[in-house]
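Hi V.,

Quick status before I head out on leave. The structure for the redesign project is tokenized and pasted below; the design run finished overnight.
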């Protein structure tokens, strides 16, 4: 026998079936015995059936499933107080007999055993081939009698090469070959990489029992075990994997033609396909060209309808000093009023990631961000803003567009009107807005400003408005008289009540206060508002006139700002440099 040449795989198969290799005729080079020679010998001598050949093929996916009470002791935290019970089965005559290991010893079951899932994972990590993906989960929610409903462990593995139950059993250090019946091969239904991937997905996703088949069979749901380190371990992001695979399955249930109908009706935007429902995202990925065509056509339909019906978005301008709460208010409003919103990105291409959100926020806008013609296109989004998006024409299909800035409303577009040699009346910009909101972080200052008739004071040296907002009613009053007037004001009382209602302490809490104005056209009898723009030199000073003004509403908006403890280093900064 020592002179017989035999391939390694053939030798393993011969040893597995206790075959004397000297009796096998080799068909390989120089009479070398190969695996098919051993297969032929096994069939001809009745050791295995030809139908068993398929089961002898190595595979990549395996499931080891066994009751916790029968696991190797090295994987158990404790055996429990109850004595072990020999497992029984019925023989061919119907008599109960003890189940035996291959060496003749009884298979024992410990009813109160507790598994150490960390020890199990340690064995899998150390002993399985490098690159093995594994998922270990305890199932202990099954109801009913019998061993199949006892708490048990699943060890599902995807091997980088191929293997056999015998090799898996050896790697895991299980008792003897009698344990191989608990190691199940997961075979692809068909040949090819796709079928291999599908069988792997089926093996891993089955464990949580959320498939339609598992639900129909009434199996216990283990989805909540995914986040429990005492119940589940894996060496890959199983939660994300499960989410992705489920999305792919769910996407097959969606009618693409019905989805396109909803896009054409304006009920679905691109943002709905890529942000949120993973099934929709997967469907979009599989049908991108068809859906992109629908999105483009839906945009054209929107443009034509908007032009025909003179439909324009709500335009809001929010102004205030730095850190007053402008951006916070804009996002608070967008979250409450709309399905989704978009905050502009880099100034080079601020609309590059716009995907049809119902609200667009131009945060911290500056007059220099665009030329005058582009600003007008943005304010009238039924025109394609090709100059505002570098690589393709973008159409803002939003219901609301919000601008936040430190520059006063009238002055902002005063600076814009002559940019890039495009001279446009100031009214062309102002008249398109519905609402101007001034945000402050000091309610006392707002009290004073409102009773004086003052507007928000800008920090950049602009003499904001010369006419129309200053009041002489309090100029001749003493400090005591002014304080008395403020304390008796119904407006102030309303604001104080609102603070109490929202649990805001003016001395301790951060908050924002909003004054709201409507943009109205002045009558022919009224003197136009003068907007004075200060240049870098005295002779650069400009005076512009506008026939649109702001009319303030009575009530304020008061909202508490989230508190941040800036005395503590954010979690993760120190860890990143250790």
């Amino acid at each position: 026998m020592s002179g017989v040449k035999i391939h390694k795989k053939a030798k393993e198969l011969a040893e597995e079936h206790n075959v004397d290799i000297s009796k096998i005729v080799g068909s390989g080079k120089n009479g070398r015995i190969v695996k098919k020679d051993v297969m032929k010998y096994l069939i001809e001598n009745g050791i295995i059936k030809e139908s068993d050949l398929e089961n002898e093929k190595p595979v990549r996916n395996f499931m080891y499933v066994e009751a916790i009470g029968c696991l190797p002791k090295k994987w158990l935290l404790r055996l429990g107080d109850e004595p072990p019970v020999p497992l029984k089965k019925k023989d061919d005559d119907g008599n109960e007999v003890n189940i035996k290991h291959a060496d003749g010893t009884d298979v024992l079951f410990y009813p109160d055993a507790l598994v150490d899932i960390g020890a199990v994972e340690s064995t899998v990590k150390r002993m399985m081939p490098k690159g093995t993906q594994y998922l270990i989960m305890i199932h202990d929610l099954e109801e009913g009698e019998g061993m199949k409903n006892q708490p048990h462990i699943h060890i599902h593995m995807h091997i980088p090469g191929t293997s056999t139950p015998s090799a898996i059993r050896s790697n895991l250090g299980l008792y003897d070959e009698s344990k191989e019946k608990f190691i199940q091969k997961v075979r692809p239904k068909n040949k090819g990489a796709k079928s291999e991937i599908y069988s792997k997905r089926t093996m891993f996703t089955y464990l949580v029992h959320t498939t339609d088949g598992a639900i129909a069979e009434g199996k216990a749901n283990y989805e909540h075990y995914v986040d429990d380190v005492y119940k589940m371990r894996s060496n890959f992001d199983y939660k994300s994997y499960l989410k992705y695979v489920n999305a792919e399955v769910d996407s097959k249930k969606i009618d693409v033609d019905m989805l396109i109908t909803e896009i054409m009706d304006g009920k679905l935007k691109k943002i709905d396909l890529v942000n949120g429902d993973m099934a929709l995202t997967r469907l979009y990925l599989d049908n991108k060209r068809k859906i992109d065509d629908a999105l483009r056509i839906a945009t054209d339909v929107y443009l034509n309808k908007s032009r025909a019906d003179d439909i324009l978005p709500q335009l809001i301008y929010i102004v205030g000093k730095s850190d007053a709460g402008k951006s916070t208010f804009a996002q608070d409003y967008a979250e409450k009023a709309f399905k989704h919103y978009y905050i502009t990105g880099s100034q080079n291409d601020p609309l590059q990631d716009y995907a049809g959100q119902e609200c667009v926020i131009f945060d911290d806008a500056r007059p220099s961000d665009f030329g005058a013609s582009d600003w007008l296109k943005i304010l009238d989004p039924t025109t394609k803003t090709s100059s505002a998006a570098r690589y393709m024409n973008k159409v803002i299909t939003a219901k609301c567009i919000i601008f936040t800035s430190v520059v006063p409303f009238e002055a902002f577009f005063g600076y814009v009107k002559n940019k890039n040699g495009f001279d446009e009346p100031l009214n062309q910009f102002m008249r398109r807005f519905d609402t101007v909101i001034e945000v402050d972080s000091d309610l006392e200052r707002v009290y004073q400003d409102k009773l004086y008739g003052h507007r928000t004071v800008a920090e950049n040296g602009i003499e904001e408005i010369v006419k129309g907002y200053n009041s002489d009613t309090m100029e001749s009053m003493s400090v005591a008289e002014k304080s008395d007037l403020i304390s008796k004001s119904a407006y102030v009382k309303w604001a104080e009540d609102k603070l109490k209602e929202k649990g805001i302490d003016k001395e301790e809490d951060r908050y924002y206060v909003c004054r709201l104005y409507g943009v109205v056209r002045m009558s022919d009898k009224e003197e136009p508002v003068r907007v004075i723009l200060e240049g870098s030199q005295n002779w650069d000073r400009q005076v512009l006139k506008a026939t649109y003004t702001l009319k303030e509403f009575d009530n304020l908006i008061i909202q508490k700002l989230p508190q941040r403890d800036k005395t503590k280093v954010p979690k993760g900064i120190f860890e990143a440099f250790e």
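Above is the designed sequence. The chain has a mean pLDDT of 80.

G. will cover questions while I'm gone.

Best,
W.
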